[in-house]
Amino acid sequence: MEPEKLLRKWVVSLMAVLLVLGLWGGVRAAPQVPCYFIFGDSLVDNGNNNQLASLARANYFPYGIDFPGGATGRFSNGKTTVDVVAQLLGFDRYIPPYSTTRGRDILTGVNYASAAAGIREETGQQLGARISFSGQVQNYRRTVSQVVQILGNQTQAANYLRKCIYSIGLGSNDYLNNYFMPAFYSSSRQYTPEQFTDILIQQYSQQIRSLYNYGARKMALFGLGPIGCSPNEIAQNSRDGRTCVERINSANRLFNDRLKSLVDQFNRQLTDAKLIYINTYGMFQDILSSPSSFGFRVTNAGCCGVGRNNGQITCLPGQRPCPNRREYLFWDAFHPTESGNSIVGRRAYSAQSSSDAYPIDIRRLAQS
Ligand SMILES: *[C@@H]1O[C@H](CO)[C@@H](O)[C@H](O)[C@H]1NC(C)=O
């Protein structure tokens, strides 16, 4: 063979070997951002309530039936929305819960979410212990002091944290386990839905600003889904067992409208920060108006649960869930299946419709 041809052959083989090594040799791309911090309620809690005296716990079978780690405390059969986002951001593991995370593990981010938690302190109290949003922000401040210690000084920590993504999604329980639960809470007798929503947004904005003061710069605020379409609300308040409860949905839309305005307001005031709004409500509307195009057969009943629409009592320990989980939007009375969470997580990360994320999606937030 001519030397030139031989050389070319060698180069081609070498490139093939490198390609194989790259694909199968455990070479992992670094995540798009150094860390991902998560604040929220049962929709994204991944174990913080396991050690609490609370009725809002999910660390028992069949929760996690489709999750590699089993029943971790996630309120789903599999992944939550933030698990999906973490994967899309390129993390090679899920963001660990605050309750069990120590040492340098905090550097890739922490999940502070707690089931039954709300923006208001008293929200969810009939279910027992929980970490309210302000408690989660307090825990985050503890993490920041640890980050300062690990990285050496405040400047280093600030430079690190400003590249990270922050997911924030609360408010569902302030309606579900507060305003629309008059037997336990007086808020609906004291305030109109507009007044109550304004109070929520006011408190929310104070805590979000506190996150900013402690280094958060790239924040994704998840809006509320149509809670009036959850199997629990349909079981309790829908005559035909399928029509969503408009009184609750309209309060959720009010909250979302105010939240989107808050994003605009912060983006004007905090010029070195970027906040985005995720339109969870719109994504659910898409699914509910055309379930089969998303692969769903059942959207008004839980896969696991008790009573009308499998929505009157939540999925009980040891209970046998539906076998065709992929075809259900809801896993239990309140929480979506992994299939439902995957749709929201994927569209939050990479918008499929211009209304999914405002003004940009998480993928572009990470790049910015
Ligand atoms: C922080 O640490 C970095 C790197 O060790 C150093 O260059 C910088 O001067 C320190 N800044 C302050 C304010 O101490």
Automatic annotation (TrEMBL):
<dbReference type="InterPro" id="IPR035669">
    <property type="entry name" value="SGNH_plant_lipase-like"/>
</dbReference>
<keyword id="KW-0442">Lipid degradation</keyword>
<dbReference type="InterPro" id="IPR051238">
    <property type="entry name" value="GDSL_esterase/lipase"/>
</dbReference>
<keyword id="KW-0732">Signal</keyword>
<keyword id="KW-0378">Hydrolase</keyword>
<comment type="similarity">
    <text>Belongs to the 'GDSL' lipolytic enzyme family.</text>
</comment>
<dbReference type="InterPro" id="IPR036514">
    <property type="entry name" value="SGNH_hydro_sf"/>
</dbReference>
<keyword id="KW-0443">Lipid metabolism</keyword>
<dbReference type="GO" id="GO:0016788">
    <property type="term" value="F:hydrolase activity, acting on ester bonds"/>
</dbReference>
<keyword id="KW-0964">Secreted</keyword>
<dbReference type="GO" id="GO:0005576">
    <property type="term" value="C:extracellular region"/>
</dbReference>
<feature type="signal peptide">
    <location>
        <begin position="1"/>
        <end position="29"/>
    </location>
</feature>
<dbReference type="GO" id="GO:0016042">
    <property type="term" value="P:lipid catabolic process"/>
</dbReference>
<dbReference type="InterPro" id="IPR001087">
    <property type="entry name" value="GDSL"/>
</dbReference>
<protein>
    <recommendedName>
        <fullName>GDSL esterase/lipase</fullName>
    </recommendedName>
</protein>
<dbReference type="Pfam" id="PF00657">
    <property type="entry name" value="Lipase_GDSL"/>
</dbReference>
